[in-house]
Design goal:
Blueprint lengths: L2 E6 L2 E6 L10 H16 L5 E6 L10 H6 L3 H5 L30 E5 L2 E3 L1 H8 L2 E5 L3 E3 L13 H9 L1 H10 L3 E2 H7 L4 E3 L4 H13 L3 H11 L3 H12 L3 H15 L12
Parallel strand pairs: 2-3, 3-4, 4-6, 5-7, 6-9
Antiparallel strand pairs: 1-2, 7-8
Helix pairs in contact: 4-5, 5-6
Amino acid sequence: MTIRIETEGAVRTIAIDRPAARNAVNPETAQALYAAFLDFDADPDLAVAVLTGTGGAFCAGFDLKAAGSGAADDWIARLDIPGEWSDPMGDPRPGPMGPSRLMLGKPVIAAIEGHAVAGGMELAAWCDLRVMAEGANTGVFCRRWGVPLIDGGTVRLPRLLGQGRANDLILTGRPMGAQEAQAMGFADRVVPQDGALAAAQALARDLTRFPQGCLRADHLSARMPPADLAAALRREWASAALFVEEGRAGAARFAGGKGRGGDFSSL
């Protein structure tokens, strides 16, 4: 398996477990994450989930080696959204990164160490709260490769950060550290390096102490209405065609060694 699942009381921790790839998500991992979060939401004994990654990284986005080689083509082809889709709660559908089109009835907290970039940033934005460790970084790194944001990034980042700040990150693809992420409103907590998971789990346990019916009702009411979210995700998905035009070539450049070690001077 490419994910790990642990449960303590009413808190479930789901960890992406591909440390050699900085927890980049391939189709197998996306499907496993999607199923794991549906199981979490359906289990009456569970109240809060924590999403994290193993090996000192949260998630480096979609696996560009799989994307560049065509190994992800069958998975991407299964993700088209019907024009009439309007209920991400009652009619759940997977996104390229797995759970990114889900609207759960229970909160999810991201525990971020290391990289949370490209689709990994979109997964973190999908979560309801983000605990980020010092030394971690985030950003729309897929800007460099011609890979569009198709896991809710264009929908959620403006709501989290405001349009201007979201524009800065989406257009430039620049990195953002933990302190700036907190100042912008992306990170809800900043903790010492290697402390994100413990802090996120402690926060999750705190949330389980409250009456859950009221907590979930307020949580649902505070979010974008499900039909509006579905419409926004349908609109964003129209950009997926650009992957064929630009992203596959960019993914192949990455697979060939470009951009390693943060050097983007020659792409």
